[in-house]
Amino acid sequence: MSSSKTSIYSALGANLLISVTKFVAGSFSNSASMISEGIHSLVDTVNQLLLLLGISRSHKEPDATHPFGYGKELYFWSFIVSILIFGLGGGLSVYQGIIHIIRPEALGNPKLSYIVLVLSILFEGTSLVIAAKEFNHVKGDLGWWEAIVKSKDPSTFLVLFEDLAAVIGLVIVGVCLYLGHLLNMPVLDGVASLLVGILLIIVSIILARESRSLLMGEGVARETKVKIKALVDEVNGVVSVPEILSNYLSPNEIVMIVMVVFRDDMTSAEINAAIHEIRSKIKEKSALVKFVFVQPTDHLYLNSFFPGRSSSRSDRPV
């Protein structure tokens, strides 16, 4: 699932168009929930810019200090985005909501707010459809949640979650704004802001969990390791493959270490030839594996290097 900027640019344009209008509408209608929505859109605008920065920096060429490249820049900036959603988006909205629940203020003319809400739903909805179509294209046959958990490209699901949260938040604000004026209950405006804040905090926690996992270093799925092991077992002279270690450097780059036990009677030349064949087979099988290190070993060495580690250990699905 490689990074694509289409959904990011569409979300950036939508949030840029409506963030200012939300603040203007919130000021004229004296609506805390509309101000919260303005904050939400402003934070989302910054988030899209940070994602674009992360994608750009992740493509930097390897150098002496980063021999494996800068692919994890995307994971770092995705984690920063989740923190911003939590702090600036969710935190400020919750604060605004609590203040206006404790001290509700008389609501102004809601007409401008309704206009902005309709336009916002139109723009955010369009961005959501684009993000959903793009994610549907990259997820293949996987289910939506399974694809999000297994995705190694946070830019695909970050925009999707942001747009979904934005549309749900707009619906919440619209309903509370209407009921607040209909029932003459200005406290509902604060309730809407609080609900939007809670929604953003929930989304930020989910995104932070996924981004953190990628930043900390996820490996390939257990089923992928099984396929690689079967591939290596076919190479002449291989006795067993006790362990395969891997790490995603970026959505499109994997570094892999294959621990291999060779026959005792093999010469150095035969082992080198087998290692070359193993590397070729793995890279031919998966274009994502950019670096393959084959470590000739035995079980005693493996147990001393990874005490208590079992080759049948179940890894987090990828």
UniProtKB/TrEMBL annotation:
UniProt keyword terms in alphabetical order: Membrane, Transmembrane, Transmembrane helix, Transport
Membrane topology of the entry: Multi-pass membrane protein
Gene3D superfamilies attached to this UniProt entry: Cation efflux protein transmembrane domain (1.20.1510.10)
Localization: Membrane
Transmembrane region(s): 6-25, 74-102, 114-135, 156-181, 187-208
Cation efflux protein cytoplasmic domain ranges (all copies): 223-295
Pfam families reported for this sequence: Cation_efflux, ZT_dimer
Keyword Transmembrane helix applies: yes
Keyword Ligase: no
Primary localisation category: membrane
Domain Cation efflux protein transmembrane: from-to ranges: 11-216
PANTHER family (UniProt xref): HUEL-CATION TRANSPORTER, PROTON-COUPLED ZINC ANTIPORTER SLC30A9, MITOCHONDRIAL
Name used for this protein in its record: Cation transporter
